[in-house]
Q: What sequence folds into this?
């Protein structure tokens, strides 16, 4: 089973959801995301949120079409996304994908990335039109070439990431030590059908990106 969660981020950052609407997928809507799903012809099995970003009319429209809407107070100790993700984890899916979690408010973006780090042992992808973001604990991982996501970046989240080794990349590394704030592993590229990365200590964020123009 796969669980795909759509948050209420700006629609212009959300990819075509039908590409990800596989047979074994269960969808979850978060706040305005439930309206976006229903309008796309996708019926979520659950929806969570305080729904302060939609009208009462939209909420009533959604309630007529869904049984699994949980309305939470706006004043609470968790974000709507965290509530939805915590529920998804109880279902023990083999993978979770999160959409609508980037763009717009930066506090929401950083909060959602923190959820990836918090659940680093779980296979979770955060996806928008330009990026795929994942968090990783020490180990060895295989990365397959996805032509439309040409660039692969590795960003240290902990103070130190030790023993990082990149194979099959344009810029390989062997047993390298990088620190928080390092840009050494930004904008790398695979040079074959797949490559591997491994490290022995710390936490890494991997971002796979497509270039829509511009550079830094």
A:
């Amino acid at each position: 089973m796969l669980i795909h969660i759509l948050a209420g981020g700006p629609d212009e950052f959300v990819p075509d959801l039908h590409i990800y609407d596989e047979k074994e997928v269960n969808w979850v809507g978060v706040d305005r995301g439930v309206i976006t799903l229903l309008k796309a012809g996708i019926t979520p099995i659950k929806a969570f949120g305080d729904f302060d970003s939609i009208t009462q009319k939209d909420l009533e429209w959604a309630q007529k079409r869904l049984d699994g809407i949980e309305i939470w107070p706006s004043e609470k100790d968790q974000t709507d996304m965290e509530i939805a993700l915590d529920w998804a984890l109880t279902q023990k899916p083999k993978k979770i994908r999160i959409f609508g979690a980037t763009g717009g408010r930066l506090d929401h973006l950083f909060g959602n990335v923190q959820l990836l780090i918090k659940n680093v042992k779980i296979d979770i992808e955060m996806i928008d039109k330009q990026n795929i973001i994942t968090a990783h604990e020490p180990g060895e991982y295989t990365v397959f070439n996805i032509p439309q996501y040409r660039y692969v970046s590795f960003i240290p989240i902990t103070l130190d990431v030790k023993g990082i080794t990149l194979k099959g990349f344009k810029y390989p590394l062997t047993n390298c030590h990088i620190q928080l704030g390092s840009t050494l592993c930004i904008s790398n590229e695979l040079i074959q059908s797949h490559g591997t990365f491994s490290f022995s200590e710390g936490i890494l964020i991997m971002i796979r990106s497509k270039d829509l123009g511009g550079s830094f």
